[in-house]
Design a protein that fits this description.
By secondary structure, the chain is an all-beta fold. The protein is built from no helices and eleven strands. Strands 2, 4, 5, 6, 9, 10 and 11 form a seven-stranded mixed beta sheet that branches. It has a four-stranded antiparallel beta sheet with strand order 1-3-8-7, with no helix packed on it. Strand 4 and strand 5 form a beta hairpin.
Length: 121
Amino acid sequence: ERLVESGGALVQPGGSLRLSCAASGFTFSLYAMAWFRRAPERELLAAISANGDTTYYADSVKGRFTISRDNGLNTLYLQMDNLEEQDTGLYFCAKSGGPMYSLAPHSYGAWGQGTQVTVTS
């Protein structure tokens, strides 16, 4: 199982970024996925069910971030708008243990290496 994040960058407050997570080595469409941020504590930001019908957002990103997935491309996305300095951190995607996501980090068994997002003026 392999997850590879990309799209992190240096951006000014108010800007936007789109993170991608390319998955391989497992049947992507059968598993819920999530995005976490480590800054420095690990925080669950958003999660999406295997079929994409159900999503979860942390209060800190609700209304600004959008999680989505393309099961045909085995790719998870995180659209981040109206970025704030406190969004700075290392962003990881993670694979859940089944088709529905969990809010517990220990439920995620595969992690990417992370992509850095820095929001600064």
